[in-house]
Amino acid sequence: MNHSLKIYCAGPIRGDLRHVESYYQIVALVWQLGHTPLTELALSETEAAKASDKDIFLRDLQWLQQADALVAEVSGPSLGVGYEIAYALHALTIPVLCVRKHSSNELSAMITGNFSRQLTIKEYLSGQELDQIVKEFLKDLESDR
Amino acid sequence: MNHSLKIYCAGPIRGDLRHVESYYQIVALVWQLGHTPLTELALSETEAAKASDKDIFLRDLQWLQQADALVAEVSGPSLGVGYEIAYALHALTIPVLCVRKHSSNELSAMITGNFSRQLTIKEYLSGQELDQIVKEFLKDLESDR
């Protein structure tokens, strides 16, 4: 496949882990569709374990700088995910998809009220719907190339 | 007082409210020291209630653009607070103080591993210590003017 995109996948790793399965699902789907997910989950456990907080910060910023787009699971609150969304929109101006489980916590107005043209926010009810949303976003990205 | 600084105060308003008292304390202290806290808490209830999410997003971004610095309570996870920290550091490059209650949740590596020269991270044990940290940060800001 020669339409391979680099997709930074953001989701809570520390903190609120109630929606971590959806995050795993996003990463797996990006991979299955022939794209490259940029995420700590793609590292070996040894690699991930030996990274200091500074290593993680630098690596995540560099991954974001290489990424064609960011997909973020935002059903739970997270300082890191909020940070990455703002960095992607304001410093890099790359497309951002925020996906959120229907009936999860009330979302920050910095996301729901954000009228950046680069930002798409979608709610999902099921894993199947989540797959569909991510697939469409990636398809649109490919056709915009 | 003619050293009045505009300080954007960030803290969880939706979501995890366990540390909201510390946020109130920061806002009150900034005010008592003769500076201007930029925060929804300074608005009347009617003004705050009638703002749509788009109004909030735009208002908060404009406040950040006017601010001399950002003080953020980061003891709990929050997409909005993470967003504001990244915007302040990367889009505005203004000084940011993150304060965090000792023994609160593990903090994101996007904060703890962040080696931006504009970022200061401090832990507090008591309300008195929190006051001291914020006072020193504001004093340093004034002497840098």
Characterise the protein shown here.
The structure is a homodimer of 145-residue chains. The first copy, chain A, has 145 residues and is of the alpha/beta class. Chain A has one domain: Rossmann fold (3-Layer(aba) Sandwich), CATH 3.40.50.450. In chain A, 48% of the residues lie in helices and 17% in strands. Chain A contains 6 helices and 5 strands, in the order βαβααβαβαβα. Chain A has helices spanning 20-32, 45-50, 53-66, 79-92, 109-112, 127-144, and strands at residues 6-10, 36-38, 69-73, 96-101, 119-124. Chain A has a 5-stranded parallel β-sheet with strand order 2-1-3-4-5, sandwiched between helices. In chain A, strand 3, helix 4 and strand 4 form a beta-alpha-beta unit. The two termini of chain A are 15 Å apart. The model of chain A has no long low-confidence stretch (mean pLDDT 93). The A-B interface holds A 12, 14-16, 52-58, 60, 74, 76-87, 90-91, 105-115 and B 12, 14-16, 52-58, 60, 74, 76-87, 90-91, 105-115.
Share of helix of chain A, binned: 40-55%
CATH fold label of chain A:
Rossmann fold
Number of helices of chain A: 6
CATH architecture of chain A: 3-Layer(aba) Sandwich
User: Could you give a short account of the major beta sheet of chain A?
Assistant: 5 strands, parallel
Low-confidence runs of at least 5 consecutive residues of chain A = none
- Give, in order, the helices and strands of chain A: EHEHHEHEHEH
Question: Could you state the oligomeric state of the chains shown?
Answer: homodimer
Overall 3D geometry of chain A?
A: globular
Task: Please state how the strands of the largest beta sheet of chain A are arranged side by side.
Answer: 2-1-3-4-5
> What is the straight-line distance between the termini of chain A?
15 Å
Radius of gyration of chain A (CA) equals 14 Å
Amount of beta strand of chain A: 15-25%
Q: What would you call the structural class of chain A?
A: alpha/beta
Number of domains of chain A: 1
Give the tally of β-strands of chain A: 5
- What is the typical, i.e. mean, pLDDT of chain A? 93
What CATH first level of chain A would be assigned? Alpha Beta
Largest interface, Cβ cutoff 8 Å: A-B, 38 and 38 residues
